[in-house]
Amino acid sequence: MLDIIYRYDPARPAEHPYPADGAEALRALEQGNREFAALVDPLEAGGGHHTLLMPLDLEDLGVATRGESVLPQRPFAVVLGCSDARVPTEMIFHQGCNDLFVIRVAGNVLGSECLGSIDYALHHLGESIRLIVVLGHSGCGAVTAAVDAFLEPANYLGVASSHPLRAVVDRLLLPVRAAAQALEAAHGAEVSRRAGYRRALIESSVALNAALTAATLHQ
Ligand SMILES: [Zn+2]
Fold it and tell me: How far is the CA of 206 from the centre of ligand 1 (A)?
């Protein structure tokens, strides 16, 4: 059995240690992810009763300030992640309300609206934000579409006629090409003929896409 519980307990108010800097914020997210993984892993091994508890305080739910003023935002990290429904950002980092400023878009591509959202967060919430994260994930559908267009250009015809789809896939072709070159440099020119190449290219492209986006944001 598995319980994921969001709990407000007036007798035991939520302790909410605020990360002092980026390194501490990163440790908080990594620790939260370890706690989430520790919940899921035993289930895969079979059985048991496991609970993941997320303590909340009333202010972060907007209850304590109801009727008085608007709850101030105080996220400690910005996360640019994929829209993929299997990657619920707060849950996989074991964070609660008001902890993360999350932008989700297919393929976690850095379009101008995403950049504008991040820019807003840094300019208006800069006092609380310690870290910006670009989060890719395995088996990304958007990256897979770009990989398939790269491997078989005829597949791109289905994308080419859709401007909204191209806005996502076109941004992913650069990291896919870079990943293909990296695999070739590491494993030789014949690597694309080997079994499992498509899957390796997808996962390499996911990592490179996140890294290139982070580098672009840093600039
Ligand atoms: Zn995805």
Answer: 9
State the distance from the centre of ligand 1 to the C-alpha of 51, rounded, in angstroms: 27
pLDDT digits (tens, 9 = 90+) for 182-209: 999 999 999 999 999 999 999 999 999 9
Task: Give the integer Cα–Cα distance in Å for 209 and 144.
Answer: 12
Q: What burial letters (b/e) apply to 135-146, b meaning 16+ CB within 10 Å?
A: bbbeebbbbbbb
- C-alpha of residue 172 to centroid of ligand 1, in Å: 11
Pick the CATH number of 2-136 from 3.40.1050.10, 3.40.50.720, 3.40.1190.10, 3.10.129.10: 3.40.1050.10
Global pTM?
0.90
Measured in Å, residue 89 CA sits from the centre of ligand 1 at 12
